[in-house]
């Protein structure tokens, strides 16, 4: 069965949920745009962005003026040609050539300023989002609440296209505004009717374009969601590579990725079809652009009211206007394709604001636990804790005290809430009631079942979460600590302390757990909270690691399943669905009591 793919339905349920109101370009959309753009442009010291913006502005204004002159010169040049006036024709031709070179140089300057602004903004916005993502443990709340999909993708992939589109928008609008006004003014000198006609046509063309393009906004969202789903499917294989390999689940995985890919391709095809409709429409209007000057200008020439060169001027002016309007129309698909980015990125800031607001406005007692940091004694008073969604109360009304140097084992059936008790002590879970007092976080270390292996060297693993730079701990001390957790040969085996490796994949879980204890020996916290931190080592090694905790005199709260760890503790907190008990451990008869035999005491 392991190799049998699930039946193909051709459709899929997305992991990404988008509210219909988030898909709309409405007031909320512009508020979110302000959330992303405002801090960059309106902060103090935003000199560089404004200087770059001003460069683009000046370049566009100069180029528009040059465009106006070129239109006039083209008319004069044509008249000179018709009149066989060589003295005027060649100087005008050279002037137009020089103007074209100057105009190209100004365009490059403007493009460079825009590109630089784009990179600068991208760096700034990405840093802001990373800060907000890490602020107040927003990343943790996002994982727990699962209300924001693929935050990594949003931060890494979606900022750059957004900045690109937004920095292009004002210069393009300016260029359009300058160019169209200059050219329309010139056309007005040829015929008073042509300018209103062009404006009317431009307005009709723009509004019709927006109407025709409208489905593009929804399609842009569908593409974004389909791509996020595809990425999730591929990442899932990477994250569970070993398990999938054990199951031999390649066919099932290929199938789930294929379904996601097909869905993404279908959305891209919808986008392409919409583009065909839109392009057909653009071509239709380009025809009108071509015909319009002929209708207005040729009769005037035939009536002898304008010179032949005016026809060339009108054609050049129309070309400039058409190119400007084309630029505006190209902006609309660009802007709609990044509309989802605005919402998706702003959601990270909104989430961070919400987390901030909750932590600032917590009123302990009613719905949240009152967590205080300070002192050496762990105190828990009438603690009731719930899952983050608030749906389930796990354990109710716990009261206990753990003095410095005491070690408490947390036991109980699987799923009862043992790890969650540690989450509460860490302040990660806050739903519930009661009061908890723990030492300041710099004196506490958490040791999870699967230690976090950061990207970097063995040295940085050992010193985590502190930076290796400026750390006073010598190599000899690091090697001695490795020897104490029986990993004395690890540095030699992997080429020293400063070799970067993928430690999470390279080290067995038991080795990673021993790295966790090495971190403890180096950081020397006064309090340690362990969550099955020795589950992957054998019983003698476990005894050795616990002996290190005892020797260091640390205060310990430990979640464990094995009875062999009982002798290393003074107390057992036994959690049950309908209650809890706290019992001193007595091993006077030389035998360790079994966890499930820990008897209940009254509260
Ligand atoms: N993020 C979450 N949202 C909602 N419920 C959760 C979440 N995390 C855990 N739970 C639920 O909370 C309950 C307690 O989980 P916890 O991890 O504390 O159990 P445990 O006693 O440590 O179990 P085990 O011994 O199996 O590790 C479980 O029923 C679990 O499904």
From TrEMBL:
Transmembrane segments: 47-67, 88-108, 193-213, 280-302
CDD domains in alphabetical order: ABCD_peroxisomal_ALDP
Alphabetized UniProt keyword annotations: ATP-binding, Membrane, Nucleotide-binding, Transmembrane, Transmembrane helix, Transport
GO MF entry, a single one: ATP binding
UniProt membrane topology term: Multi-pass membrane protein
InterPro entries assigned to the protein according to its UniProt record, in alphabetical order: AAA+_ATPase, ABC1_TM_dom, ABC1_TM_sf, ABC_transporter-like_ATP-bd, ABC_transporter-like_CS, ABC_transporter_sub-D, P-loop_NTPase
PROSITE patterns registered for this protein in UniProt: ABC_TM1F, ABC_TRANSPORTER_1, ABC_TRANSPORTER_2
Annotated SUPFAM superfamilies: ABC transporter transmembrane region (SSF90123), P-loop containing nucleoside triphosphate hydrolases (SSF52540)
Compartment list: Cell membrane
Domain ABC transporter: 378-603
Alphabetized Pfam families for the sequence: ABC_membrane_2, ABC_tran
Domain ABC transmembrane type-1 positions: 54-337
Keyword Cytoplasm: no
Protein name as annotated: ATP-binding cassette transporter
Organism: Sphingomonas endophytica
């Amino acid at each position: 069965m392991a190799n049998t793919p699930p039946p193909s339905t051709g459709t899929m349920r997305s992991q990404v949920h988008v509210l219909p109101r988030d898909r709309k370009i409405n007031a909320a959309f512009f508020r979110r745009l302000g959330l992303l753009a405002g801090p960059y442009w309106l902060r103090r010291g935003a000199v560089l962005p404004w200087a770059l913006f001003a460069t683009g502005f000046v370049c566009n204004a100069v180029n528009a003026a040059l465009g106006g002159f070129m239109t006039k010169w083209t008319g004069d040049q044509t008249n000179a040609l018709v009149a066989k006036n060589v003295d005027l024709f060649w100087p005008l031709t050279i002037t137009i050539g020089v103007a074209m070179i100057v105009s190209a140089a100004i365009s490059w300057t403007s493009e460079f300023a825009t590109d630089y602004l784009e990179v600068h903004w991208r760096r700034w916005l990405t840093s802001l989002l990373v800060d907000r993502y890490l602020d107040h443990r927003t990343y943790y709340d996002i994982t727990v609440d699962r209300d924001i999909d693929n935050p990594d993708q949003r931060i890494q992939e979606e900022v750059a296209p957004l900045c690109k589109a937004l920095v292009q928008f004002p210069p393009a609008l300016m260029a359009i505004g300058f160019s169209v006004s200059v050219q329309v003014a010139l056309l007005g000198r040829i015929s008073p009717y042509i300018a209103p006609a062009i404006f009317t046509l431009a307005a009709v063309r723009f509004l019709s374009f927006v109407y025709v393009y409208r489905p593009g906004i929804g399609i842009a969202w569908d593409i974004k969601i389909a791509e996020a789903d595809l990425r999730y499917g591929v990442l899932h294989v990477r994250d569970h590579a070993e398990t999938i390999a054990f199951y031999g689940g390649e066919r099932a995985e290929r199938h789930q990725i294929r379904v996601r890919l097909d869905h993404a391709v279908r959305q891209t095809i919808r986008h392409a079809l919409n583009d065909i409709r839109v392009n057909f429409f653009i071509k239709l209007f380009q025809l009108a652009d071509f015909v319009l000057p002929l209708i207005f200008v040729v009769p005037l020439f035939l009536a002898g009211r304008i010179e032949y060169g005016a026809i060339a001027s009108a054609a050049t002016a129309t070309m400039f206007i058409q190119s400007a309007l084309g630029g505006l129309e190209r902006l609309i698909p660009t802007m709609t394709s990044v509309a989802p980015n605005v919402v998706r990125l702003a959601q990270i800031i909104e989430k961070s604001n919400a987390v901030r607001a909750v932590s600032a406005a917590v009123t302990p007692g009613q719905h949240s636990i009152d967590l205080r940091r300070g002192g050496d004694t762990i105190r828990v008073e009438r603690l009731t804790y719930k899952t983050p969604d608030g749906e389930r109360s796990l354990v109710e009304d716990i009261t206990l005290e753990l003095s410095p140097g005491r070690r408490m084992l947390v036991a109980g059936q699987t799923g009862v809430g043992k790890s969650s008790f540690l989450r509460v002590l860490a302040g990660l879970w806050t739903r519930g009631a009661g009061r908890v007092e723990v030492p300041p976080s710099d004196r506490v270390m958490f040791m999870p079942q699967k230690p976090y292996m950061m990207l970097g060297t063995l040295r940085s693993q050992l010193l985590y979460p502190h930076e290796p730079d400026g750390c006073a701990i010598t190599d000899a001390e690091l090697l001695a600590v490795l020897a104490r957790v029986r990993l004395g040969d690890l540095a030699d085996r992997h080429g020293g302390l400063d070799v970067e490796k993928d430690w999470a994949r390279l080290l067995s879980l038991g080795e990673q757990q021993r790295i966790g204890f090495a971190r403890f020996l180096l950081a020397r916290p006064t309090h340690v909270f362990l969550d099955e931190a020795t589950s992957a080592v054998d019983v003698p090694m476990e005894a050795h690691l616990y002996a290190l905790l005892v020797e260091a005199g640390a205060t310990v709260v430990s979640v464990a399943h094995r009875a062999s760890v009982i002798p290393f503790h003074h107390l057992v907190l036994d959690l049950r669905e309908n209650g809890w008990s706290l019992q001193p451990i007595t091993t006077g008869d030389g035998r360790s009591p079994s966890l499930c035999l820990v008897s209940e005491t009254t509260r």
